[in-house]
Each structure stands twice: as C-alpha cells, then as structure tokens.
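Meet our chain:
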Amino acid sequence: MASIDPVARPAMSSERVRDALVVPGGLWREIRIVAETGSTNSDLLADARRGVAEGAVLAAEAQSAGRGRIGRAWVAPPRAALTFSVLLRPAAVPQARRGWVPLLAGVSLALALRQEAGVDARLKWPNDVQVNGAKLAGILAEQADDAIVVGAGINVSTRRDELPVPDATSLALAGAVVTDRDRLLAGVLRELERWYLAWTGRAGDAVESGLAAEYRRLCATLGRQVVVSLPGGQTLTGPADDVDDLGRLVVGSPEGPVPTSAGDVVHVR
C-alpha cells in the first residue's frame, strides 16, 4: 500500500459520522469504516444474503477490488477518495420501479456535494457525478434477493497524476470549499435518507416523490447530442430529450423517441 500523508489525508472517524446520523427511527443504524477491503459492495452484498437489515453503511479507506459500472475497475490511492456502500431493502417498492435506486443515489450525491463542497455537481445519465464535464464520482447498485446495495466512489483529494483517466477530476482539483470526508459522508447520507424515505413512502413513484423532477434539474445529459453504446454492441445516436418516469433515457431518432434503460453515454455536444 502506498504511503499516506496523515495531515493531507487524515483517517475517517466512524464515531463522528455515527454521532451525526444514527438516531432512533432513522434509516441509518450501523456505520463502519475499515482501513482496507476488497470491495465495500461485495461485503454488504454478503451481509444482505445473511439477512442483515437495511441501514448498514460500510466505508473503506482503501479498496483492492473496487468495481464500477459495466464491469470496470475503480481505483484510488488510500484516503484520497470517499468510498462507501449502503444496504437498502425497499420492500414497499415494486420491482419495476427499483431502477430508480442508482438515479436516486446520484441525486443525493450531487446535492450533498453542491451543499457541502460548493461545487457545481451535475449528473451524467444514469448516475455519474460530474463537475465541468469531468467525472467526480461514480455509483454502482447491485441486487441480492430483495436487497439493493449502492456503492459510491468520490474523488476527494486525488491529484491530477493520481487520476485513472484524463477526463476525471476530484473535489480538490475542482476548488471545493470542503474536503473533510467525514463531513462529506454525513452530507451524502442525509440526502440519501431524505430522498429514499420520500421515494419509498410513495411506493417508488419518482414523480409523486419529486425525485424525477429533481433528477431532470440536475441532469447535464438532457438537451445534449449523445451516443449511447447499448448492450449487444449496438449504438444509438441523437438528442437526449428526457428521462421518463421509469428513469430511462429518452433519445430522439428518425423513428421517434427511443427509451433506453442501460448503456454507456457519451456527450457529443
């Protein structure tokens, strides 16, 4: 493991985050922070299969096998990023509406980073968080029986030479006013709790809960010309016209609007 500057990259405190968030009747009931693990998502998926109740949070100072969307690896230097996963069990939500979970997480991250860090965080469909068109954070949602584990990785103090790809950024590089990972985690979890309870309280109706409108407001993909790489090797090119009530990206085509629920999006202009 690489050496760590304890001043520039201090360790996180589970007690500090727990004191700020774990309250009777609240969503979050357990917050753990470990020095290193393979993948926080994998760990909580295993917990979910053992019947652990929703509301568990696991953060790691370093991950050796972090995962992103579409099978990509997610890497970051120790303590340079905020990497965590949460365990949810949206029993009141029909399966058809659960595709909103990663988008809900994206809204929560974007709002928390705007509020806590003072950056103009925007969403690239479905759930990448960007600042000035550069990727700041990624989200991966995975299901285990009736549970959903949502993992997030936010580049916090990552230097330019430490970023895995040229089109990524970090809070430090974006001029954030706050890079305290305890405070950032608490802010994200507050927003996630607020939106999750509103959404599940309306049986997963993204329109009635206000989630769909908030997602559209924060989405930088809408109004852009995009190329969508679809499963099976096909591509879809056209204007990103809307995100529908099921969270699908609606792309214009000569044959009419085409909704897509999965794909890798490139903003053309």
In short: The helical segments are 14-21, 40-49, 101-117, 181-200, 211-218. The chain has a mean pLDDT of 92. The radius of gyration is 18 Å.
